[in-house]
C-alpha cells in the first residue's frame, strides 16, 4: 500500500467519553507505532468530539469522524471507519474494551509472517474494572466447529478479537447496516462460510469489559420488540449464508432452531405469547425442524407464558428439553 499506516483501529462510539478515553489510552501506549485510530462518533453530546479532537491535535494518528445522515448505529460507524481507513490491516475495537500494550505489534508481525491468512483471531480476557480482575477468558477453547458455535449463539470470539487483512474486509463488504443487532455474528458467519483463511491463537491480547448497560445492543436485542421482529430476517440471512456456503446439515439446522427458540423465549418474557408461537413456527415453515420438535417446543412456550419461569419448574423442564433436542451446544447438568 505504500502507506506509513500499517493497521487501522476503528472504534464506533456514542456518549461513552470516560470509557472511550481508557480505550484510546490503550491504543496510544502500543509498542507498535504505525497505527491510526479512527473514532467514529454516532452522535455524542457528552464532550466526545472536543476530547477526541484535542487528542488528535496532539497525535495525528488519531482521527475523529462524525457520522452524518439518517442511518445510525455501530455497523454504520464501523463501515465509515473502513472507508476512511488507510492501513493494510483493520482491527475493530469497541469503545469500552482495551488492548494489551503489545497487541498490535504481535498481530501485525503474525500477519506479515503468514501472508496466506485473511484474518487471525486472538483470545479475549474479560474484566469488570481493570484487566485481570475476573481472571477469566471469554471462551478458552480455540479448537472446534467455530461456525456451529456462532449459529448456537455461543460466539467463539468477539468483535475486537480478529485482525483483518484489508482485502478480506472488502470482500465481505463490511458490516450489514440493515441488521439492528447480531451484526458481528453475521460478519463472522459470512467470513467462515466464504472460506476465508484464518487461525486462532491462545494469546490473550485484548480485554472485554463485562458490564450491564440497558442501552447496549446485546441487551436491547433481548428486550426490544423492534429487535426481536428484525431477528427473523437475521436468522433467515444466516440460513441463506450457510446454505450458499458450506451447506446445511442436521447440526446446523438444530443450531438455527435453537436461535428461533431463543427469540421466542424473549417474546414470552415480554408477555407476547402469539409472537413467540409465530416465531417458533418458522422452524417448520423453513423445514429446519421436525413436527415433533415444533409441537413440543410450542407446548413449552405456552407453559412458560402461563407460569413465571423464576419459579423454576417450567424453566428446568425447558432446559432439559433443550438438551434432549440438541438445542444446546453442550450438555449441562441441572441441579434438582
Describe the structure.
- 47% of the residues lie in helices and 15% in strands.
- α9 (225-244) runs antiparallel to α10 (250-269) and α12 (291-306) runs antiparallel to α13.
- The termini are far apart.
- Strands 1, 2, 3, 4, 5, 6, 7, 8 and 9 form a nine-stranded mixed beta sheet that branches.
- It has 336 residues and is α/β, with parallel strands linked by helices.
- The protein folds into two domains: 7-209, Spore Coat Polysaccharide Biosynthesis Protein SpsA, Chain A; 248-324, no CATH class.
Secondary structure: elements and pairs:
Blueprint lengths: L6 E7 L3 H12 L6 E7 L6 H11 L3 E5 L7 H11 L4 E4 L5 E2 L3 H11 L5 E9 L8 E2 L8 H6 L10 E4 H7 L10 H11 L4 E12 L7 H7 L1 H20 L5 H20 L3 H13 L5 H16 L6 H12 L12
Parallel strand pairs: 1-2, 1-4, 2-3, 6-9
Antiparallel strand pairs: 4-8, 5-9, 6-7, 6-8
Fourth-tier CATH superfamily name of the largest domain: Spore Coat Polysaccharide Biosynthesis Protein SpsA, Chain A
Give helix and strand order, one letter per element, not per position: EHEHEHEEHEEHEHHEHHHHHH
Model regions low in confidence, pLDDT < 50 over at least 5 residues: none
Shape: globular
Number of strands: 9
- Please tell me the CATH architecture of the largest domain by its name: Alpha-Beta Complex
Mean pLDDT, to the nearest integer, reads 91
From the 3D structure, determine the CATH topology of the largest domain. Answer: Spore Coat Polysaccharide Biosynthesis Protein SpsA, Chain A
As for the number of domains, it is 2
Amino acid at each position: 500500500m505504500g502507506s506509513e499506516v500499517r493497521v487501522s483501529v476503528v472504534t464506533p462510539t456514542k456518549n461513552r467519553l470516560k470509557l472511550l478515553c481508557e480505550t484510546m489510552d490503550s491504543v496510544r501506549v502500543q509498542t507498535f507505532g504505525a497505527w491510526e485510530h479512527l473514532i467514529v462518533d454516532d452522535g455524542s453530546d457528552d464532550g466526545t468530539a472536543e476530547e477526541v479532537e484535542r487528542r488528535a491535535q496532539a497525535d495525528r494518528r488519531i482521527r475523529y469522524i462524525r457520522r452524518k445522515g439518517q442511518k445510525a448505529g455501530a455497523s454504520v460507524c464501523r463501515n465509515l471507519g473502513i472507508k476512511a481507513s488507510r492501513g493494510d490491516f483493520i482491527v475493530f475495537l469497541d469503545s469500552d474494551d482495551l488492548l494489551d500494550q503489545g497487541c498490535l505489534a504481535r498481530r501485525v508481525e503474525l500477519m506479515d509472517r503468514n501472508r496466506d491468512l485473511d484474518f487471525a483471531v486472538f483470545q479475549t480476557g474479560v474484566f469488570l474494572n481493570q484487566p485481570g480482575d475476573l481472571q477469566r477468558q471469554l471462551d478458552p477453547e480455540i479448537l472446534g466447529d467455530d461456525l456451529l458455535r456462532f449459529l448456537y449463539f455461543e460466539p467463539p470470539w468477539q468483535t475486537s478479537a480478529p485482525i483483518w487483512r484489508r482485502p478480506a474486509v472488502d470482500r465481505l463488504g463490511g458490516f450489514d447496516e440493515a441488521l439492528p443487532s447480531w451484526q458481528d455474528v453475521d460478519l463472522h458467519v459470512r467470513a467462515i462460510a466464504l472460506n476465508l483463511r484464518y487461525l486462532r491463537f491462545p494469546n490473550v491480547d485484548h480485554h472485554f469489559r463485562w458490564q450491564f448497560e440497558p442501552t447496549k445492543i446485546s441487551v436491547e436485542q433481548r428486550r426490544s420488540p423492534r429487535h426481536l421482529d428484525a431477528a427473523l430476517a437475521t436468522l433467515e440471512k444466516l440460513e441463506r449464508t450457510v446454505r450458499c456456503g458450506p451447506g446445511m446439515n442436521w447440526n446446523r439446522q438444530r443450531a438455527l432452531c435453537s436461535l428461533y427458540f431463543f427469540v421466542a423465549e424473549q417474546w414470552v418474557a415480554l408477555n407476547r405469547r402469539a409472537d413467540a408461537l409465530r416465531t417458533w413456527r418458522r422452524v417448520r415453515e423453513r423445514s429446519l425442524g421436525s413436527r415433533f420438535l415444533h409441537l413440543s417446543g410450542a407446548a413449552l412456550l405456552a407453559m412458560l407464558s402461563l407460569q413465571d419461569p423464576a419459579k423454576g419448574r417450567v424453566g428446568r423442564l425447558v432446559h432439559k428439553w433443550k438438551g434432549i433436542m440438541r438445542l444446546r451446544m453442550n450438555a449441562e447438568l441441572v441441579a434438582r
